[in-house]
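Please check this:
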Amino acid sequence: MRFRVVLCLVLSALAFLVPRPARAQLTTIETDNLRLIYDEITLGYIAPHAARCFENALRFHRALFEYTEEERVTVLLSDFGDTGNAGAGSTPRNIISILVAPVSFAFETYSANERINTLMNHELVHIVAVDMPHGSDRFFRGLFGGKVKEIPEHPETILFGYLTTPRDSAPRWFHEGIAVFLETWMAGGLGRALGAYDEMVFRSMVKDGTRFYDPLGLESEGTKTDFQAGVNSYLYGTRFMSYLAVTYSPEKLIEWTSRGSGSKKYYAANFKKTFGRSLSDVWRDWIEWEHTFQKKNLAAVAEYPITPYRDISDRGLGSVSRAHVDRDRGLLYAAVNYPGTVSHVAAISLADGSIEKLIDIKGSSLYTVTSLAFDPESGLLFYTTDNYEWRDLRCLDPETGDSRTLIDDVRVGDLVFNQMDRSLWGIRHYNGISTLVRIAYPWKDWDQVYSWPYGEGLYDLDLSPGGGLLSGSFTNIEGKQSLHVYAMVDLIEGVVEPIATTTFGTSVPSNFAFSPDGKYLYGSSYYTGIANIFRYELATDSLNAVSNCETGFFRPIPLGADSLIVFRYTGEGFVPSRVELKPVFDVNAITFLGQQVVEKHPVVTSWTAGSPMQVNLDEIMTYKGPYRSVAGIRSESIYPIVGGYKDVPVYGLRLNLSDPLRMNKIGLDVAYSPDLRVPEDERAHVSLGYE
């Protein structure tokens, strides 16, 4: 009864003290399982599709994990960043946040599939893996009135959090590994469990003799000192899960990662229960297996002549942007991001490989660092900052070091410079839509050329030396990829029809660039399983491989006469190298670990989620209207706390309340000090906080 009185008092105070949100700004679609929150004006067109994707993915996970949700999942659709992404949390509430912008296909680190569907498939694995209760989990959730989120001011919540959601304490590689593994098969094999980038990473590690992290090192050193930072959790996690699926079975993998009947709280203890061996022992077995597996792949590649290369730099540069050659100064400009330094634009000497730092990049992106364009006549560099938020366009003079902002929050990337009229061209992301734009000199504003429907768009642009042609990689909503070439005169007149195109299926055509004579386009693709360089001839509409490398060649810069600068993948990142290319007629395919999963355990081919269009949203929708923020505030949890006052202990309770999106959070501490040394009028303590 006292708890109810306190709760009523808090809610009454909140009605007067908490600023009321502008309800018209957010709309909610609700079903029995979902609370989808979005801006109706800007994202209303995509909200029904997102709701269907959620319900479709949830049906799959319910069946696979035997999962029954005990609360609605809140999903927020937003356009807070220029690159599509998502995140999920299950403590104290089940919440998924999705950025609707187009995703980055850089180096094919993201699979070519419809992004909202893929993100829902992935993020719901996280919800299920953490939220699914068993045994004492359910008891403690009842005792504490919900799932307890750890907070710094009350360290005891670490214990309470483990008691209510034990799998929340599992390492990130565990959660990302099973999520990527399942999203791959839910999409019929489109995903990084069958991805060429992951194969390249581990093939390169074996070739270079790079040390593999153990589970502990992965969560410490592997997320801080490696250029791929937190992405290692995805790489190692997915790889280890796939190894377990091949060695044991996909069903055993689900048994381990599920908090099902008879499972152990701690993920490592449940591993031993499931597989009969310790996690560390099987991890060592995987590393040994990986070396044998990748040595066979390297031997298969080497059966045909390997394309020779000469490194320009003697070290890996981590992640790299598109690069540009300054022939007059003998320099290679690129933005780089490697451990031990802040992301920056660098000038690399073509003569001796020395590197000069030009300017730091604020808000760099992981794989591409920034979008970089170059005016060879003036020597100016154009680059973007805040690349994971709303991008700004800036200009740098490498000679003087002077830099300035051209346009704030322009949200344009994939920049290319047109030498004919000094304009910049690029791709703008806004509310999930890709738009080709032109930024006329002096680069103060942008003009729309064409906006593609949702799910379609260009990326990796280039302009021919004479400025008459624009090329770009094109994706459609089904994930099919192709290389397009447009006549600039057509684009200026509003005609957006390619004059040449070549298809790549679901392989990504990356960074195709015109040769100095404008007759060819050189780019990279995993078309043969390894990222080799391909040459597309416009006159004959022909595509040919012109390299056979062991790891991967990327971001080619044609120099003329089949001479290129490429970026060679290594365990330390990308190394700029010179190569002399000639047509390659024979290359060997490599074996993918995901392919072995399918061959040995074809059950994964039945693990498809199907089309979201099979969900009849009108039948299951229970509410559509304004998001009720303050009115939706409910209790999250209540638990005992221990504190101190004047060197004596204080005992009490902590009550947490919030709305479903946790936009309004309230914490109430009520405590008492029974020590007789404390004056009676100082023994009761009440603290109310709001965020």
